[in-house]
Structure formats: C-alpha cells, structure tokens
C-alpha cells in the first residue's frame, strides 16, 4: 500500500485513535519519502555509476607538486575537491582526466608539457590499484575500478602536427578539445583572452578539417568545449562521428560564452552528440555563487530543448574555483541526482545521463573508426606560412657555415636573419 493510500484510508475512518494513527503514519511517510529520494539516488548510481567528462586533477598535481606523485597520497587530499575516497563516495566509475597545458606554451614547449601531463595521468592510474587506465568503450564497461580516460584540453597541444596527434593517440589519449582559451592556427576559441591567430570567417581552416578527419579516423572523440560557436558549427558539419562538449552548460540559463546556445544544441543532437554539463558556478548562475537548483535548471532546460539522450555530466573539478553549494567536491554527485529525481526525472533518463549516453557516443566514435580503417594516416601538413614562429624548425642537414638554414633565406649574414625574426608581426609573439 502506498503512503498516500494508507493516509487516506486512515483519515476516512475518523476517530481519536485513527487521528493518532494518521499523525504517526504521515510523519513516517514524510521520513520515508525524505530518505527514499536520497536512497534512490545512491541505489541508481550503484547500478549506473557516473562517467564524468572533465577533471583537472593533473593540473593540480603540476601546480602543487610539480608532478611528483611521491609527495602526495591521492586517497585523501583535503585541499582538493578530488581524491580516491571521494570519487568512490560519489559513485564516479570513470573520469576523463584532462591533459591541460596553458596557452602560454603555444609555439613554445606545449608538446613537451603535454607529454608530461599524459605521463603523470598514466603513472597515477597505474600506481593506485583503485584506478585503471582504459582506452576503449569495452574496457570502460568492463572496468571494476575507477576507469581513467585521457583527454587533451586544447589543440595547441599538437603544435599543428597530425603525427603528434597520432602519437598522443598511441599514448592512450581518446579525446581532444580543439582549443582552450587561445585560437590555434586552425581553430577558433570562445575566448578573446589571447590575441593570437585572429581570423574572420575561417573558424575551421583546411588544416583544422584535416585534424577532425584524422580524429575520426583514429577514433578520438572531438571535444567542442572552449571552441567558438562558429568553430563548433563547422566541426559538427564536418565530423563523421558524434562530438561532445565535455564541460559546458546552457547559454539560455546563463549567457556565458563557454555555454551552448539552444540552436547549437539542436545541431549537436542532429549529429548524435553529447553535452556534459559543467558545474562551475560562473557557468551555472553567471555569478560566483550557485546551488543545486541552479544546476538542475540547466538539466531541465537542455532536456526540454533536445531530450535527455544527449546529456551528461562534466564536473570541471580542479579546473575551476567556485562550485555550487551542495556540490563542492566529487563525492557530492548523488545530491544532484537526488534533485533531478525530485524533479521527476525517470531512472531511465538518469541512467542515460550518468553513463549510457557517453558510452553510446564513444561506441559510435569507435564504429566510425572501424568504417574508416581502409584510409591511410593523413599526410596533410599545415602550410608553413600559417605557423611562422621561431620555434618551428624544418629538419635539414646542418648548414656547413653553421647558419641555421631553416629560418629564412639561406643567403645573408646571421644578423639580418635575427632582424627578420624580430620584425615578424608582433602578434606572433603575444602569447600571454
Ligand atoms: C564574415 O561573414 C559575415 C556573414 O557571414 C559577413 O557579414 C562579413 O562581412 C564576413 N567578414 C569577412 C571579413 O569576410
Ligand atoms: C557544411 O558543409 C557543406 C559541404 O561540405 C558546405 O557546403 C557548407 O557550407 C557547410 N556549412 C557550414 C555551416 O559550415
Ligand atoms: C537556490 O538559490 C535560489 C536563489 O538564487 C533560491 O530561490 C533557491 O531556493 C535555492 N535552492 C536551494 C536548493 O537552496
Ligand atoms: C512530479 O510529479 C508529481 C506527480 O505526478 C507532481 O505532483 C509534481 O508536481 C511533479 N514535480 C515536478 C517538480 O514537476
Ligand atoms: Zn576547461
């Protein structure tokens, strides 16, 4: 018998005793229903544990420990929002760990720094037996641990090189955001923080399209978080596989440039993609404070516009500073699920949001890779004039006169060569 029926039948037979029953019964019901939503959330997340789209733990390991894992015990890190104990408490079964290299490294040592961040994630996910590095949808599904997926955050990490992209794939990278807060020579960022590679009406260049094609061929997920809407649209038009926003929220609810407007959500759905909602307060309420209701508003809105099949969660813990009240760290995800249950989301919808949508996208990306397996690795190269910078050398035998033969006209004294580099457009050097 349901609570409501019990209360109704008790109240229909009015007497002092039944009034007492009624009172006891309704407070009991209150308690049960109060607890049961919380219990339902935990139970649901035990059956369908979360695959989270974005976490910057590796960035914090660099900032605080210069990647020396020996200095820290990741079971319990109170100064951060992420550790193994709280990942387990939050029912996080898989985490995309971001390989993030600041835009200031573009045209400098971005590739080295990227390798070092991949290394620290690989070491972390090997050292702790609670973690397991996975590189396919099947391994992700089979894993009984916290599955680690590696994703690069910012196309500047490949230094405009498809061979570098392929080698990152070999190291286990299964997703890449095309930009961070800087444009690359081939794709446009949502941010105007850096003035590098300004362009008009060319938000995804010929080489940018080749990057998307190569990612499709490899089976690497294209991530549009941080790219401009124009670039996102061009990628959605060009990609053969579904793409994701790994950590972006709804622009209709909070009009921040990092969020996704409804028209773009509709394009994303047409391409069978996925938006994983970012929990950072600035993208949730457009202010420094937010709460779970504000977050749930993003979920309700996106569901209303495109449905729950194209939705996920990309917390952005360790990559941002302020998180909503009640969602301060990775152990708090059940509170969000509880709020969505309270808002009448079905368990099926929530199972989709928690993991089934991501698994579907990952499998479809792998399916496209399988279909493209007769295509050889791309030999497209970015035109030299699009990547003019003093760090980019062309591999040639050394000039017998000891003059670097790869940075300009081979005739003329070294002094002139240095002058030519200094006179290059200053925007090339404006990195930070
Ligand atoms: C870019 O495209 C818009 C509309 O598509 C047009 O109005 C504008 O003139 C174009 N700008 C350039 C530099 O081509
Ligand atoms: C989409 O691609 C087609 C063909 O490749 C092209 O003609 C069209 O302009 C593209 N649209 C956008 C919005 O990029
Ligand atoms: C969240 O904050 C809003 C005000 O911005 C308030 O109306 C709402 O009740 C709060 N929700 C929770 C769960 O605290
Ligand atoms: C959830 O559904 C119940 C019963 O159908 C209804 O009374 C309640 O208003 C709904 N809640 C929300 C937030 O839509
Ligand atoms: Zn980010």
From TrEMBL:
Topology versus the membrane: Lipid-anchor; GPI-anchor
UniProt GO MF annotations: metal ion binding; metallodipeptidase activity
Record bears the keyword Cytoplasm: no
Signal peptide per UniProt: 1-34
Biological processes annotated in GO: developmental growth; proteolysis
Primary localization class, coarse: membrane
GO cellular component labels: side of membrane
InterPro entries associated with the record: Dipep_AS (IPR000180), Metal_Hydrolase (IPR032466), Pept_M19 (IPR008257)
Enzyme class: hydrolase
One Pfam family this sequence matches: Peptidase_M19
Catalytic activity: an L-aminoacyl-L-amino acid + H2O = 2 an L-alpha-amino acid
Keyword annotations of the record: Dipeptidase, Disulfide bond, Glycoprotein, GPI-anchor, Hydrolase, Lipoprotein, Membrane, Metal-binding, Metalloprotease, Protease, Signal, Zinc
Subcellular location: Membrane
Documented EC number(s): 3.4.13.19
UniProt cross-references to PANTHER family, sorted A to Z: DIPEPTIDASE 2, MICROSOMAL DIPEPTIDASE
Known partners and oligomeric status: Homodimer; disulfide-linked.
Entry similarity comment: Belongs to the metallo-dependent hydrolases superfamily. Peptidase M19 family.
Protein name: Dipeptidase
Species this protein is from: Lates calcarifer
């Amino acid at each position: 018998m349901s609570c409501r029926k019990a209360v109704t039948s008790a109240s229909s037979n009015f007497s002092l005793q039944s009034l007492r029953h009624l009172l006891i019964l309704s407070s009991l019901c209150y308690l049960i229903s109060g607890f049961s939503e919380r219990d339902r959330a935990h139970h649901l997340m035990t059956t369908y544990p979360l695959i989270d789209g974005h976490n910057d733990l590796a960035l914090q390991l660099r900032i605080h420990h210069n990647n020396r894992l020996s200095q820290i015990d990741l079971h319990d890190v109170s100064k951060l929002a992420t550790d193994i104990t709280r990942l387990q408490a939050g029912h996080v079964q898989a985490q995309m760990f971001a390989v993030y290299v600041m835009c200031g490294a573009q045209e400098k040592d971005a590739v080295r720094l990227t390798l070092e961040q991949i290394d620290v994630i690989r070491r972390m996910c090997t050292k702790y037996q609670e973690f397991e590095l996975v590189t396919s949808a099947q391994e992700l599904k089979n894993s009984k641990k916290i599955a680690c997926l590696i994703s690069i955050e910012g196309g500047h990490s490949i230094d405009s090189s498809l061979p570098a992209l392929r080698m990152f794939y070999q190291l286990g990278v299964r997703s890449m955001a095309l930009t961070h807060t800087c444009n690359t020579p081939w794709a446009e960022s949502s941010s105007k923080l850096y003035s590098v590679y300004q362009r008009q009406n060319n938000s995804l260049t010929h080489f940018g399209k080749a990057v998307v094609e190569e990612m499709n061929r490899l089976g690497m997920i294209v991530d549009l978080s941080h790219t401009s809407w124009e670039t996102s649209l061009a990628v959605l038009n060009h990609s053969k596989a579904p793409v994701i926003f790994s950590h972006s929220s709804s622009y209709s609810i909070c009009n921040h440039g990092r969020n996704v407007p409804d028209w773009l959500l509709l394009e994303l759905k047409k391409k069978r993609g996925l938006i994983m909602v970012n929990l950072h307060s600035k993208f949730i309420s457009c202010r420094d404070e937010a709460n779970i209701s504000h977050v749930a508003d993003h979920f309700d809105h996106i569901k209303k516009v495109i449905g729950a099949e194209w939705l996920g969660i990309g917390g952005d813990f360790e990559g941002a500073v302020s998180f909503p009240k009640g969602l301060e760290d990775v152990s708090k995800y059940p509170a969000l699920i509880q709020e969505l249950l309270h808002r009448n989301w079905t368990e099926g919808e929530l199972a989709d949001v928690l993991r089934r949508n991501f698994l579907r996208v990952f499998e479809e990306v792998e399916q496209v890779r399988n279909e493209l397996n007769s295509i050889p690795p791309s030999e497209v190269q970015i035109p030299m004039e699009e990547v003019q910078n003093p760090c980019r050398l062309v591999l040639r035998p050394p000039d017998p006169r000891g003059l670097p033969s790869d940075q300009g006209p081979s005739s003329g004294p070294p002094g002139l060569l240095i002058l030519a580099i200094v006179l290059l457009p200053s925007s090339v050097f404006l990195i930070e």
